[in-house]
Amino acid sequence: MPTKNKLYLSSEKLVSTQNISPYCRVVFNQNGILFSDHDCDYCNRLVNQIVSNSYSTFYLKQKLDFTSHDYQLLNTEEVKWYQLHSKSIDFDGVDAIFAYILNITDKKIAELEIRRLSRIRSLMLEVTNSIMKNDEIEVFYSLILRNALAAIEKSSLGSIFIRRDKHFQCVSCIGFHESVMDFQLPVQHSFLYRATDGAMDRITHLKDIQPSDLNYPIKIDTGEFVNIKSSLSAPIIISGEVYGMINIDSLQANAFDDSDVKSMEFLRDNIEIAITNHMLFQEKSHLAKYDRLTGLYNRHFFEDQYEFIKEKAQRYNETFNLVMFDVDELKKINDLYGHFIGDQVIRKIALEMQTSSRKSDIIARFGGDEIIAILFASDADELHKKFTNLQNKLIENPIDFFDERIHCSFSFGIASFPQEGQEFEDLLKIADARMYINKANRNI
To answer: Domain boundary at 103, 124, 142, which?
Structure first.
């Protein structure tokens, strides 16, 4: 008699409908397969896998209605996924499970691929969002590497190298000993170079790296010396040139598969974009603060910094001097020799000022031929002597232009904070007036 609340199926009925269903139908219980209407080796192996591993748990999950379960077939060279639509039944008086089995390998691989790409995109989005937060490129490299290792879970070690002529210089590493940061790897010795015959134009997947003269033990963060057994190495191409490389390594042979190579391709493309954007952002940040011709700060940045410096000086009762400089006879030089030579005069004077200043000093190009500075730890008399000596030095070292010798000189004026004023405009007026007095006294 049929068991109450269970579907009753007989072997006779299943046999009579054997050619109707396009799916593999299987009846099984804890003893194994009781019926199968398709000679499908993979389906039978899957059922035996369920029976041997978790039949009792599987049986308890069955409801009156059909339930659906996804399973990966284990111990196969190919990845195989199946979906079981199953229900507990009475099969010829025996408790059993009736299941439709569908091959969903392609669908499952597509789903996993979407999840993988979504996860990598999320990790790379973090890198992209960090562009405007990290001025220090070393911090940026570290974030890239950390997220790359998170994207390729089978990895245990990673490094980013930047090309310096004939060597690769390590700029970030995870899993390696910190001494790796001082390591300069000859380009020709790298896995990337050797695997691509020097082209370094594609990702290399090294599955089982054997020890050799060029694959020697390397120190990891535990202090041990080990050999890398498998590696994914990707070139970082910026503006058509090999900028560097990112390596994802493992101490196990055959650690990575085709999906990891695809992940590395996606990572590499996004890393190249991220580094390019970071470089562009740094360039824009630099231009926002610095004058392109002289390399000094620009006027806008200088005026912003003045307010911070003033507040700090007021809070801690500090002093400083504001100095105004003016390039002598720049219009005359431009008219006689052209603006290119005029620019060289400005650059030469700016360079001398940078060379003779302290790191704490702030020097900016204030206008076309004007330079301004905030100088610390010096009184006005000391600065007057210093800049008088600098004037003489520049005059004695002119710029040679064909048969001409073009003398570089400047005039200057000094105002002291807070004795002569605290607001920028007040100090600027005093320094500017004294600059013209200095110019007049020198008969310029």
So the answer is: 103
